[in-house]
Amino acid sequence: MFPLRAPLLLALRRHVRLPRVVAWLDRARDSLQWTDDRLAHRDELTTLLRAAIGVVWLPPDERRLRAAVDGRVVLVTGASSGIGRATACRLAAAGATVLLVARRRDRLDAVRAEILRAGGAAHVYQADLADASAVELLVRRVLVDHGHVDVVVSNAGKSARRPREARADRQPDLARTMNVNYLGPVRLLLGLLPAMRARGRGQVVNVGTVGVDLPMPYWSAYLAAKAAFESWLRAVSAEARADGVTTTTIRFPLVRTAMSARTRFLRWLPGMAPAEAADAVCRAIVRRPRLMSPWWARLGSFLFTVARGPRDDFGWSSAVAVRRG
């Protein structure tokens, strides 16, 4: 509201000549500027507090982000919505040429149009990571069009939350969960990593989950797939780092996306916005750590380990029993 009023007052100030009115407009403009400064300061303090308690990560320095991605080719999977969309727009604004990958062409076109309107560069590649032949074709098209990829943001994912016994007749669903979260990203990187290693530089950012540290009931298929890809990437990192290719896994807590919105109880938990998750991805690109995980997730994982015993589920069994009532 305030940023819209300040330019209006400035425009009036230029055309009004009565001294008293001019003085009033000047005071009003100064008051609004003071209010804007207070709001910006409050937002900054709120971000710092949320970062301190492990809900979000601080955004990177804009100059360092631009230096890291300006003129580079960045491929983002799952770019049609949520974290992928926010990340693609943020990187394009910093000067990257963004390759948008997802299943839904209409949504990819909308993201590309948004980036182009803002003065960025983006290309659309429709592909389903669960389809091995589609991934192979995607790799060929990308390498023909661009020659290489500097950064891969592996963000596409599929969640599957249901009791174990309810999955007995849902084998196709289980297979798709594994393909989208594990086998698809592996196939994609197997096609793109050779060019990275040959050029002596490259980066992979994996959008993971704190569920790898803190496994929850009903999410076994999803967490198994995410853990499998994280383990694979960690092993590949040991091989590729000598060739200048680095990898980062970000174990995200709850991010409010369309995927998480389907689970009712998650609506009551604190979470970050997709734009804040995009800040974390950009921070990973700038700093290149091997792992980013909230401090409370690492602490919880440690407590989970030391508390193992006859009841090694850290209390989840009781919660499930109460739920079944």
TrEMBL record:
Keywords assigned: Oxidoreductase
InterPro entries documented for this protein: NAD(P)-bd_dom_sf, SDR_fam
CDD domains on file: SDR_c
Pfam families in the cross-refs: adh_short (PF00106)
A GO cellular-component term linked to this record: membrane
Record-linked SUPFAM superfamilies: NAD(P)-binding Rossmann-fold domains
A molecular-function term among this protein's GO annotations: oxidoreductase activity
PANTHER family listed in its UniProt record: DEHYDROGENASE/REDUCTASE SDR FAMILY MEMBER 7B (PTHR44196), DEHYDROGENASE_REDUCTASE SDR FAMILY MEMBER 7B (PTHR44196:SF1)
Family the UniProt entry places it in: Belongs to the short-chain dehydrogenases/reductases (SDR) family.
Protein's name in the database: Short-chain dehydrogenase
Source organism (scientific name): Streptoalloteichus hindustanus
